[in-house]
Specification:
Layout: E1 2-3, E2 18-22, E3 27-34, E4 38-42, E5 53-57, E6 65-72, E7 78-80, E8 83-109, E9 112-117, E10 124-138, E11 141-143, E12 149-173, E13 181-186, E14 190-194, E15 197-199, E16 202-210, H1 216-219, E17 223-228, E18 231-232, E19 238-242, E20 245-252, E21 258-269, E22 276-287, E23 313-324, E24 327-338, H2 340-350, H3 384-403, H4 412-415, E25 422-430, E26 442-452, E27 458-462, E28 476-484, E29 494-496, E30 502-508, E31 511-521, E32 528-531, H5 541-562, H6 569-574, H7 577-586, H8 591-611, E33 623-624, E34 627-631, E35 638-640, E36 647-649, E37 657-660, E38 667-670
Parallel strand pairs: 1-22, 4-6, 23-28
Antiparallel strand pairs: 2-14, 3-4, 3-13, 5-12, 6-12, 7-11, 8-9, 8-10, 8-12, 8-13, 14-16, 15-16, 16-20, 17-18, 17-21, 19-20, 21-22, 23-24, 24-26, 25-26, 27-32, 28-31, 29-32, 30-31, 33-34, 35-36, 37-38
Helix pairs in contact: 5-8, 7-8
Length: about 675
């Protein structure tokens, strides 16, 4: 039991004594085979990929051949008990009825070697896929940090039954589909719990992870939880490093006033179906001010940017293309909404601008303090002077802050643009109503203006996430809205390499729009958005609209004028070309397509008008005695032309009678 006297503020430093709570015992862990045939053993299934690896045997062999060796060089000092290590490796036999194999799996621990071979039952492999299992007996022994575990798989003989021309035996590993692995009992790590720190009503409880895996022990574990008197502490912990150790700190706010005897437990679920590493100890603390504290631990050292889960990221881009004094200008506003551990890391960094005690590896090292005083720095609150100095420094340092491996790990050139091409750039931070250094989201906004070359292809956006062994970000959302003015155009545009993002390009009389959207984009998603911006009047939306309208209206006016006394049934059918031309315009096809569509429609309408048949004239009412008031209805027989259905009056009783059609001009013979 540790007794901690109370004093105002934090009363126990991060370097105070710690209680080791685990682990002298070895744990049964699954070690996955990854990499090539000279690969690695890892306890983290997250490092398996989609493709994996394999080794092939294509001919029958009668002498020993090594299939592959896999090493596990990160061993925690301790004792390995006497046990059986089980190796399961996937195989595939193809173009043969089967195969018989004599294989051996050997484990080398330090200088000692343990092995197992296939027996009569396990040596016969059927056609298709399956698994070979080995049970390797391992004796009790001690290992040090310099000890290495190495797995070797070898085959002394392979004989195919009913082989074809391409008979082969494949050993498969390293993928999620074929997770070949070996279960082993080895020591993994040491867990400790720091003496609690008391600040007002906040109690800071820290678990220390010492292992050969570094941040991976936290990043790839299933979960890590801390309990006080059996009740789980809620809220997001803060992760920091202490030398080679990882420190995870929770804030407990349920302590009663006065002396508290508490039992603190830590539980680390190392694998989904693997070991649970846990331990506990007791502390006595005294609390006199239950109303103080911020509810979030404020670390003295730079916090880790991730615990492995990754932080939420939402990106919004607003782009305006316009023409100014004969130059093509693009104004871009990029808004990054950041939450989780990355937001806390950024807030902590703003409160440490000008801190000379920062590690030289930190992206914040060497930043000018400007007007930030020592009273402002490390105050657990982001003053306006700190925020403004951060924005000033970011103008020249944002490329490193964003793209460095110790920074945000986002490629600034692909997301924001090439700084060498900017006319102006401004950067602003919005703390979203919370100025304290606590777990709270914030937004980082980049506003840029640059001059583009008309007609030259330009990358509007590219995938911007780096390959991350330990992910800083979760899947991110992205929304891009790009607009042009009435006298500028994005030209031809396309999205390359990806069908995952929603992409559309539309043209209207008042301007063009490009929309890009994805609610959840994977960090490994690859894409490129290309445009060809232009301020040529023939490409601009408004002039293009006027020219197209003139061509279409001219065609319609001409066609309807020509068919004033003709049938228009064919012309009405061809008016379906109007929405087709409109769609060509709307979907932002190049102007040559718009002109060709409207010009072709116009020409077709005019030709149709010229060849359309004439309509028959109505029967006239003849006058009698020259008096317009006196009329006589005369019934004249008629027949319909079989070709164009024009009515042909029959003015003679002579039979047979030949008459000409006034509509199509054909001669018709009447016999009855």
């Amino acid at each position: 039991m540790v007794s901690i006297p109370f004093a105002s503020g934090i009363i126990a430093s991060a370097n105070a004594q710690t209680a080791v709570v685990c682990c002298d015992d070895a744990h049964n862990v699954e070690l996955y085979m990854t990499g090539s045939s000279t690969g690695q053993l890892t306890p983290f299934s997250q490092l398996l990929d989609d493709d994996g690896d394999n080794a092939e045997i294509t001919n029958s062999i009668t002498s020993q051949e090594t299939v592959g060796t896999w090493s596990f060089g990160r061993v925690w000092p301790g004792s390995i008990p006497e046990s059986t290590w089980n190796l399961v490796i996937n195989y595939r036999v193809s173009d043969a009825g089967g195969a018989q194999i004599n294989a051996t799996a050997s484990v080398k621990i330090g200088s000692q070697i343990f092995s197992d071979s296939t027996n009569l039952e396990s040596s016969v492999l059927g056609q298709g896929e399956g698994q070979i299992e080995f049970a390797i007996p391992v004796e009790q022994m001690s290992v040090s940090a310099s000890s290495e575990i190495e797995l070797e798989l070898s085959a002394r003989s392979v004989v195919f039954t009913v082989p074809g021309g391409d008979a082969k035996l494949e050993f498969l590993w390293g993928s999620t589909e074929y997770p070949s692995s070996m279960s082993a009992e080895i020591p993994l790590m040491e867990l400790s719990i720091d003496n609690p720190q008391v600040e007002g009503g906040d109690i800071y409880l820290s678990a220390v992870i010492d292992s050969p895996f570094g941040i991976d022990a936290l990043a790839y574990s299933e979960s890590i939880e801390m309990f006080v008197d059996g009740i789980k502490i809620t809220g997001d912990p803060i992760e920091t490093s202490r030398g080679d150790s990882i420190v995870v700190t929770w804030t407990w706010v349920d302590a009663a006033s006065g002396l508290n005897n508490i039992q603190v437990s830590i539980r680390l679920n190392f694998q989904s179906n693997g070991p649970v590493i846990e331990g506990s100890t007791q502390f006595t603390i005294e609390v006199t001010d239950t109303g103080g504290g911020t509810g979030t631990f404020y670390p003295a050292d730079e916090p880790l940017r991730t615990s492995g889960e990754g932080s939420p990221l939402a990106i919004t881009q607003l782009i305006d293309l316009s023409s100014d004094d004969g130059e093509l200008k693009m104004a871009k506003t990029t808004i990054l909404e950041i939450d989780g551990e990355m937001a806390f890391w950024m807030r902590w960094g703003m409160d440490h601008i000008g801190d000379t005690d920062l590690s030289t590896n930190s992206v914040l090292f060497g930043w000018s303090p400007g007007g930030v005083s020592s009273d402002d720095r490390e105050s657990r609150n982001i003053e306006n002077v700190e925020k403004e100095q951060f924005e000033r420094e970011m103008k020249t340092r944002y490329r490193t802050y964003m793209s460095d491996v110790n920074g945000m790990q986002l490629l600034s050139n692909e997301l924001i643009g090439d700084s060498a091409e900017f006319d102006t750039i401004s950067i602003s931070v919005d703390l979203l109503g919370e100025n304290r250094v606590v777990n709270h989201p914030l937004t980082l906004t980049f506003s840029t203006l640059q001059t583009l070359t008309s007609g030259q292809q330009f990358e509007l956006l590219r995938s911007f996430t780096l390959t991350q062994t330990t992910p800083l970000w979760q899947d991110y959302s992205i929304t891009v809205e790009a607009k042009s003015s009435v006298l500028t155009s994005f030209g031809s545009s396309e999205m390359l390499e990806s069908d995952y993002l929603s992409f559309s390009h539309s043209r209207y009389p008042w301007g063009e729009t490009i929309s890009i959207e994805a609610a959840s984009t994977g960090l490994d998603e690859v894409y490129t958005i290309l445009i060809q911006p232009n301020d040529n009047l023939l490409f601009a939306p408004m002039p293009l609209t006027i020219i197209t309208s003139i061509i279409v209206l001219f065609g319609l006016f001409s066609a309807f004028s020509i068919t004033k006394n003709k049938h228009r049934r064919f012309l009405w059918l061809e008016l379906v070309l109007l929405p087709i031309v409109a769609l060509i315009y709307l979907f932002s096809y190049p102007p040559i397509f718009v002109f060709a569509g409207s010009g072709g429609a116009t020409l077709l309408w005019i030709v149709t008008g010229l060849v359309s048949p004439r309509r028959a004239k109505k029967s006239e009412k003849p006058q009698v005695d020259g008096s317009p008031q006196s009329t006589l209805e005369v019934s004249i027989p008629s027949v319909n032309c079989p070709s164009c259905q024009t009515k042909i009056p029959i003015l003679s009783d002579e039979r047979p009678l030949k008459v000409a059609c006034s509509g199509c001009g054909k001669t018709i013979k009447i016999v009855g």
